[in-house]
Amino acid sequence: MATPAPAHGYTEDSIKSLDWREHIRLRPGMYIGKLGDGSLPEDGIYVLLKEVLDNCIDEHVMGFGNTIEISITEDQTVTVRDYGRGIPLGKLMECAAQINTGAKYDSEVFKRSVGLNGVGIKAVNALSEFFEIQAIREKQTRSIEFSQGLVVYDMGKPKACDEPDGTRIAFRADAESFAEDTHFRLDFVREMLRFYAWLNPGLTIILNGEKFKSKDGLMDLIRAKLTEEPQYPIIHLEGKDVEVAFTHGTGYGEEYYSFVNGQHTTQGGTHLAAFREAIVQECREFFKKQYDPADVRGSIIAAVSVKVQEPVFESQTKTKLGSTHMEPNGRNLRGHITSVIAAQLDNFLHKHADIAKSLQEKINSNEKERKEISGIQKAARENARKAKVCNKKLRDCRVHFDTKDKRRDDSTLFITEGDSASGSITKSRDVETQAVFSLRGKPLNCFGLTRKVVYENEEFYLLANALQIEEDLEELRFNRVVLATDADVDGMHIRLLMITYFLQFFPELVRKGHLYILQTPLFRVRNKRETYYCYSDEERQRAIHRCGKSAEITRFKGLGEISPDEFKHFIGPHMRLEPVTMPEQKSIKEMLTFYMGKNTPERQTYIVENLRIEEELEFKGEAKSEELAEAA
Predict the structure, then answer these.
(1) pLDDT (tens digit, 9 = 90+) per residue, 266-315?
(2) Which residue in 288, 304, 303, 298 sits closest to 231, CA to CA?
(3) Most exposed residue of 148, 273, 390, 625, measured as fewest CB within 10 angstroms of its CB?
(4) Quick one: which of 482, 391, 500, 504 has its CA closest to 435?
(5) Domains of the chain, with CATH numbers?
(6) What's the whole-model pTM score?
(7) Closest-CA residue to 199 (of 214, 210, 186)
């Protein structure tokens, strides 16, 4: 009897082994998350920079080097120079190009390190078209240059050098792995460096000549992030391997900044859960009342930093702590943090009766407001429960962010204006990961209103219910909330009203980077052979130049004008999304007062100075287009 052929060509030849650089280049997402083009702070190029900086920070924490110098040039070449001990010259090649090699396996040398797997620098090396590593130790130096992880030049034997000890790494992201227009946004880099400075008082970081330094650490962080006057002076607590700083504001939501060994864990983890538990526990015990957790934590802004030996993160990008113990076979992490914070806070409140009184007044105020809206909330929930059966405004998808589905990060809710726009998106969307919520005309301007409006306004409540953000972001159903409005005055107004809604009542949705604006094409330029979709007048002019005199130009003024067959390209894997971010050094209250409050002379002057007439712009664009067509 003949031996059957292997099914579907699955043979011994199908099994492949990759070397370290091949694996990193084939599966970069495992090492640096999503590649991106640098337009979002979580894009991969910032992870490359962070991997280099983490090693410099670890040196500083161990007591070696108080200055880190960074330069980013116009061609996006990054150079990072620290003044630590410098990599041992004889191990330079292994540290740069041999996976799972490093000094941090020795817990006596690096007791509280972030990078423990010997992977970070190798990932930077493999994903850079240019990578150079240089170490200086005891008047000797050695350097090696790579491209895509392959050696281009090796100095070999060390040479004499008069520079101070330390390490210098330069790299430029590889165009084959990243998009051609990938670039660093210096605002994102500055924010990263501020956190490093806040977590390491006494460290000076210099970016292209600009200095970042902190004296009071976490207290400086809270001061910088406060968007209004706090309800009471910042409370700062320190215990063994645990440090926290917090206060309460007057807005809604909870705002946290959590860190492990100086690493900004943007998705929290064990340590943040322990802090949230501890503050509720202590307030209940100190004030002798079983407060609701939401009343204790409402409007809080806090920073939590812990030191953990051999931390366990949930991914290579280290955004969420998964450790359960302070060190291998040691103290329970959650229990230790909870007990330290509770004890320190108890001592603090006994010593500062005025602050304790202000804290209790804030908790009582939260409780009063919650009880005032409880009746409205109950009715709204009942209506929402009924609406889930017949609500035609929400067209849901199958995969959600609060599940363990591998596609959860792709879960998207498009918020559209009217049925015509939602119709195009609904017919074009991926029903697995994309949902649509259709607004009925212009939503209410909720600036200055209390949270009661979230429950009294049916549309607002149904939206909050669809997102599952009524209490907090723990059960958020969609990773991306996308405002998909027309590119006209009415569309812009609706967009602004919705941003106001989220900033006013759910600011954490914006802070955590979940809110976006969908960029859709303004023009279609085509001839018989090719079609171009243009998102700006400059793109339109280039398209006309390519298509020549026979170019047919269509101006899209509303999403409903774009056919579903065309629309699927604009909400597919390469859709253009602009993140809604919190502006630096500006409070939510100040910003919303300016844009959404009553007209003031200041705002009128701003409008006049920035007024742009669409017809005039189109006329100028058409004239320029005719010139280009003639040239073609």
Answers:
(1) 777 888 999 999 999 999 999 999 999 989 998 899 999 988 877 776 66
(2) 298
(3) 390
(4) 482
(5) 20-212 (3.30.565.10), 218-369 (3.30.230.10), 374-520+560-597 (3.40.50.670)
(6) 0.72
(7) 214
